[in-house]
Amino acid sequence: MANIKSQKKRALTNLKRQNAKAGQKSELKTAIKKVLLAVEAKDVEAATAAYNTANKCLDKAVVSHIKNNNYAARQKSRLAKAVNSIQK
């Protein structure tokens, strides 16, 4: 642990931020899994609703610098392709 007061504060804020980001990462992974499970079950309505939620989570992750823009675009494309495959 640091000896300087400002560094002690910084260490605490880093831990808080780390915990907040861990929660957002977990939420994002769960949203993506829900889409894939709905696609696997061939439930079009649930898959579409889960896809919209996942898109929202991906956009939030990009804005808050948790995930890269290319990662989000790749996931959106992959999930859209999966959802569209069961709509035909």
TrEMBL record:
<comment type="similarity">
    <text>Belongs to the bacterial ribosomal protein bS20 family.</text>
</comment>
<feature type="region of interest" description="Disordered">
    <location>
        <begin position="1"/>
        <end position="24"/>
    </location>
</feature>
<dbReference type="GO" id="GO:0015935">
    <property type="term" value="C:small ribosomal subunit"/>
</dbReference>
<dbReference type="InterPro" id="IPR036510">
    <property type="entry name" value="Ribosomal_bS20_sf"/>
</dbReference>
<feature type="compositionally biased region" description="Basic residues">
    <location>
        <begin position="1"/>
        <end position="11"/>
    </location>
</feature>
<dbReference type="InterPro" id="IPR002583">
    <property type="entry name" value="Ribosomal_bS20"/>
</dbReference>
<dbReference type="Pfam" id="PF01649">
    <property type="entry name" value="Ribosomal_S20p"/>
</dbReference>
<keyword id="KW-0687">Ribonucleoprotein</keyword>
<keyword id="KW-0689">Ribosomal protein</keyword>
<keyword id="KW-0699">rRNA-binding</keyword>
<comment type="function">
    <text>Binds directly to 16S ribosomal RNA.</text>
</comment>
<dbReference type="GO" id="GO:0003735">
    <property type="term" value="F:structural constituent of ribosome"/>
</dbReference>
<keyword id="KW-0694">RNA-binding</keyword>
<dbReference type="GO" id="GO:0070181">
    <property type="term" value="F:small ribosomal subunit rRNA binding"/>
</dbReference>
<dbReference type="GO" id="GO:0005829">
    <property type="term" value="C:cytosol"/>
</dbReference>
<protein>
    <recommendedName>
        <fullName>Small ribosomal subunit protein bS20</fullName>
    </recommendedName>
</protein>
<dbReference type="GO" id="GO:0006412">
    <property type="term" value="P:translation"/>
</dbReference>
